[in-house]
Amino acid sequence: MLRFDFLSLPKGTVRTFSKDIYEVKSGLLVKDIHTNKVFRIQDIFYDIRTVKDANGNIVAKRKNPQRELHIINHT
């Protein structure tokens, strides 16, 4: 499995284990869709469960917070 790199995702969303959803912004920033607060990816990185691209396809995920965030291959 390959580790996910956020620089390869220009737009998309991330969902955390606490069920918060963030919109991916440029410069490794994310914006909470409910509060509009902006955070750095590294502030929420270890709570991220699923990453989706702009089309809603899952591109990376992890099963628990202790695991790495891995790329999902759609073949």
The averaged pLDDT comes out at 89
Through-space gap between termini: 14 Å
- Helix and strand pattern: EEEEHEEE
Uncertain segments of ≥5 residues (pLDDT<50)?
none
General form:
globular
Strand content: 35-45%
Radius of gyration: 11 Å
- Largest sheet: spatial strand order: 4-3-2-1-5-6-7
Number of domains: 1
> Number of DSSP helices?
1
Overview of the structural elements:
This protein has 75 residues and is mainly beta. It has one domain (6-71). It is built from 1 helix and 7 strands. A hairpin with a 3-residue loop joins strand 2 (21-25) and strand 3 (29-32). The model has no long low-confidence stretch (mean pLDDT 89).
Overview features:
mainly beta; 7-stranded antiparallel beta sheet; globular
What is the topological layout?
Blueprint: E1 12-16, E2 21-25, E3 29-32, E4 38-40, H1 41-44, E5 48-53, E6 58-61, E7 70-71
Antiparallel strand pairs: 1-2, 1-5, 2-3, 3-4, 5-6, 6-7
Quick synopsis:
The protein is mostly beta strands and 75 residues long. The protein contains one helix and seven strands; from the N terminus they run ββββαβββ.
